[in-house]
Amino acid sequence: MSAPTVLAVDTATLQAGVAVWRDGRVLAERRQVVTTHSESLLAMIADAFAEAGVTPAEVDAFACGAGPGSFTGLRIGLATVKGLCFATGKPLVMISSLAALAARAPDGRTLATLDALKGEVYAGLFDVAGGVPALVGAERVIPPARVVASLDGSLPAVATVVGSGAHKYRELVLPGARLLDEEAGPRPGDLARLAALRAARGTYDDLASAAPAYIRPSEAELVKEKRSQ
Question: For the whole prediction, is pTM greater than 0.85?
Answer without folding.
Answer: yes
